[in-house]
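Holo model, zinc ion. Inputs:
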Amino acid sequence: MFFIGIFGVNQTEKPIGTYNNTICPNCGALTRLELYKRYTYFHLFFIPTFKWNLQYYAKSGCCDSIFELDPTIGAQYEKGFNPDIRAEHLHPLVQFEPFKTCPHCHRKVEPEFNYCPYCGQKC
Ligand SMILES: [Zn+2]
Ligand SMILES: [Zn+2]
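Output:
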């Protein structure tokens, strides 16, 4: 079901469910995946340009990694078929890392800091 705006660019992301007791392909923990579906569309007033893109994503509860989920599996899940989601269906997209690591003391530092608050070195 696509909601169409009057004009502009819209991106919709909506949770479609969770998948429990699976192994995280990134860190190997027994985890829970949160599944999302995302679609983007461009609708320019007076210009009949209309594109859309449907993708499925999974976010791991353990390390916040984001994976692109195989669209066939995503569609099956959405229809309630309860497919097996295995590592081969998950393609790492962003290894979500909210912090950078100080190259001197290897502690986690807020990304906007230029100097490490722990050791005072530039990072
Ligand atoms: Zn993980
Ligand atoms: Zn440091």
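Residues 24, 26-27, 29, 31, 60, 62-63, 65 surround zinc ion (ligand 1) (CB under 6 Å). The radius of gyration is 19 Å.
Archived with the compound record.
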